Hints:
Elements: E1 4-14, H1 16-30, E2 43-52, E3 56-59, H2 67-75, E4 79-82, E5 90-92, E6 96-103, H3 105-108, H4 112-129, E7 136-137, E8 145-147, E9 150-160, E10 163-171, E11 191-192, H5 195-199, H6 205-220, E12 222-227
Parallel strand pairs: 1-2, 1-12, 3-4, 9-11
Antiparallel strand pairs: 2-6, 3-5, 6-10, 7-8, 8-9, 9-10
Helix pairs in contact: 4-6
Function: Catalyzes the transfer of endogenously produced octanoic acid from octanoyl-acyl-carrier-protein onto the lipoyl domains of lipoate-dependent enzymes. Lipoyl-ACP can also act as a substrate although octanoyl-ACP is likely to be the physiological substrate.
Family: Belongs to the LipB family.
GO molecular function: lipoyl(octanoyl) transferase activity
Amino acid sequence: MQPRAVRLVQLSRVRYAELLALQERWLRRLQPEPGTEALSGTEAGALLLCEPAGPVYTAGLRGGLTPEEAARLRALGAEVRATGRGGLATFHGPGQLLCHPVLDLRRLGLRLRTHVAALEACAVRLCELRGLSGARARPPPYTGVWLGERKICAIGVRCGRHITSHGLALNCSTDLTWFEHIVPCGLVGTGVTSLSEELQRHVTVDEVIPLFLEAFKETYKCSLISEDSPN
């Protein structure tokens, strides 16, 4: 059986709002109204990759930020956005790989929990390919990928009618001081880290994207079709 195809859309550095707008367009494409363009029968959706152009704090369905906290974070020069993903508050910013797979899980033969585990496996594999053999996933509420008690990759997804959105945020060369202004993902007593911190050298998002794509294809057993980034 031929593997399902997933469209690869790389956006380089963009504002978080632009990523969300593109995600919404792909959600509409996977849930088409009569008379609108739909995916071919061999495609399962899209893999959206980018690096945030500026600092932004996001809150999930479980909240995580009071109006007072949101005002304090905006005063630091960051955006603050509510999202429809699972989980609590986290940070996105330059030096971070954002991966938003917009997928029809039925076409890939996956359940939601299997999809979350696959995202974790992709990040673990990327860390291993960079020589960090201690990276591992942990059971809820510690969703994501960890090196000891330090989280290197946060995961939060949304799923409706078997269609997923949002995804993971992997710290490559992220300024980790931004995390000091919140309790990341609501987990008290844990820390955050990055590839640059662990490897003691500057690791760019562009450097790790080929490794992540390799891990994604292996884990999801799919092919990737490159698509031009929207203007």
